[in-house]
Amino acid sequence: MPIYEYTCPTCGNSFGKLIRSMAAATEVVCPTCGNADVRKKVSTFSSSVKGGSAPSTNSAPSCSSGGLWGIRH
Questions:
Q1: Would residue 28 count as lying in a domain?
Q2: Would residue 27 count as lying in a domain?
Q3: Residue 54 falls within a domain, yes or no?
Q4: What does each of the 73 residues of the chain score in pLDDT, given as a tens digit?
Q5: By CB atoms within 10 Å of each CB, which of 7, 20, 45, 65 scores lowest?
């Protein structure tokens, strides 16, 4: 269940809303002024990896056959 961010053009309030279904997305109103004509904000996601590649670590569990997670190669 994603949390969407909205802005109200009437009062300028920015708020987040947990959307449980697509039908609930049409029922979003500003909690400050009650305006139903709110605008969904374009949001970005963050990543903890910088520079385009992840550090090279071998921390994944392995089995006695040498494969990861018990999968034989």
A1: yes
A2: yes
A3: no
A4: 688 899 999 999 999 998 887 776 678 999 999 999 999 988 666 556 666 555 555 555 555 555 555 555 4
A5: 45
Based on its alpha-carbon atoms, the radius of gyration of the chain, rounded to whole angstroms, reads 22
- Asked if residues 7 and 25 have their Cβ atoms less than 8 Å apart, the reply is no
Which residue type does 19 have? Answer: I
pTM of the model: 0.53
Give the torsion sign (CA, 60, 64, 69, 72). Answer: positive
Question: Does the residue 59 lie in any domain?
Answer: no
Burial letters for 34-63: b for 16+ Cβ neighbours within 10 Å, e otherwise? eeeebeeeeeeeeeeeeeeeeeeeeeeeee
